[in-house]
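ok new one. same drill as before - C-alpha cells go in, u give me an amino acid for every spot. 70 of them this time. try not to just spam alanines like last time pls lmao
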C-alpha cells in the first residue's frame, strides 16, 4: 500500500515541528501510547497549546461539539 503522506499533509493542522507529520499511522500510535490524541482531533486554537490529552479532547467536545472535526 502506498503511503498517503503528501495527501495527509493537506489535512494536518499540527503546528509542532515533528517528523511524523503526514504519517498518520505513526502519529496516532505515538500519541495513543501516552494516552493522547493527534493534533487533528483538536481545533486549531486548542491544538497550538499542545495539550493533546483525552481529557482535553473531552472538554473541547463538551464545549464545542464535534462539528469542527469535519
Ligand atoms: S500530532 Fe503529534 S505525532 Fe502527529 S505530527 Fe503533530 S506532534 Fe507529531
Amino acid at each position: 500500500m502506498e503511503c498517503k503522506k503528501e495527501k495527509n499533509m493537506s489535512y494536518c493542522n499540527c503546528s509542532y515541528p515533528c517528523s511524523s507529520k503526514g504519517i498518520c499511522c505513526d502519529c496516532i500510535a505515538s500519541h495513543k501510547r501516552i494516552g493522547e490524541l493527534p493534533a487533528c482531533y483538536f481545533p486549531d486554537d486548542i491544538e497550538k497549546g499542545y495539550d493533546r490529552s483525552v481529557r482535553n479532547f473531552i472538554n473541547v467536545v463538551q464545549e464545542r461539539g464535534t462539528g469542527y472535526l469535519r
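The chain is about 45% helix and 0% strand. and btw The pocket of iron/sulfur cluster is lined by residues 14, 16, 18, 20-21, 27, 30-31, 38-39 (CB under 6 Å).
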